[in-house]
Structure to design on (239 residues):
């Protein structure tokens, strides 16, 4: 069953900034995608920086569970392990 | 009155003036200052670069302040974290907590710095004497620790 694709823009921080020149990544995901769909699409992209099996994805500045649906106006970010202090 | 302050700063942080800003109604002020170390895991560090997700950091800071207030009877909380490029010896993070007595001031300051290190969406890249650099490991935001404490607040 083919499903239509939509593109989401993912903001990148820390080590993930090295994945693109402008620190964002456009990712094609199925329409009505969840966080888990986005992570699966990222893993399929053969990125230059290794991703953990379950990277933290923030939606609107909060870590989001796998099942959370992505909306068109969400701010989506890929969060590496934090290292402040 | 809740006059707590928490945030990211692109300019140098003065720990003494931050500690002095808590007001005269506190018997105890505990200040913690984390600085950039010149050695990490046996390599000579010349500077650190801090990256941050500011909008998420604002949310996390507010949550840390709220939880600290719930857990400890403190009078004032100040916590500032640097962003940008820092030389060895520069101040990376300052926590100042005021309370009526030392016990709660020490406990709350410890709570704040541990929460900052475990949760704040801040990342650091170390640059070394030999010209190389690397992003440090750190902590998953779920609270699970991974390899390496790294440089900065010890």
């Amino acid at each position: 069953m083919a499903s239509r694709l939509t593109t989401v823009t993912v903001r990148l921080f820390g080590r993930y900034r090295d994945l693109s020149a402008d620190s964002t990544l456009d990712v094609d995901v199925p329409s009505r995608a969840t966080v888990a769909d986005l992570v699966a699409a990222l893993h399929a992209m053969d990125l230059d920086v290794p991703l953990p099996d379950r990277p933290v994805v923030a939606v609107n500045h909060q870590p989001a569970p796998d099942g959370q649906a992505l909306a068109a106006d969400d701010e989506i970010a890929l969060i590496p392990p934090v290292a402040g202090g | 009155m809740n006059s707590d302050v928490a945030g990211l700063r692109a300019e140098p942080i003065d720990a003494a003036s931050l500690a002095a800003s808590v007001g005269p109604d506190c018997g105890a002020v505990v200040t913690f200052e984390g600085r950039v170390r010149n050695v990490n895991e046996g390599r000579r560090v010349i500077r650190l670069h801090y990256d941050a997700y500011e909008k998420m950091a604002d949310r996390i800071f507010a949550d840390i302040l709220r939880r600290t207030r719930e857990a400890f009877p403190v009078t004032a909380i100040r916590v500032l974290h640097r962003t940008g490029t820092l030389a060895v010896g520069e101040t990376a993070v300052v926590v100042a907590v005021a309370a009526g007595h030392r016990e709660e001031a020490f406990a709350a300051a410890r709570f704040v710095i541990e929460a900052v290190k475990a949760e704040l969406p801040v990342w650091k890249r170390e640059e070394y004497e030999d010209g190389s650099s690397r992003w440090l490991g750190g902590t998953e935001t779920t609270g699970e620790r991974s390899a390496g404490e790294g440089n900065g607040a010890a």
Remarks:
- The two ends of chain B are 32 Å apart (CA to CA).
- Chain B touches chain A at residues 34, 50-53, 55-56, 58-59, 81, 92-93, 113, 116-125, 135-142, 146, 150, 152-153 (CB under 8 Å).
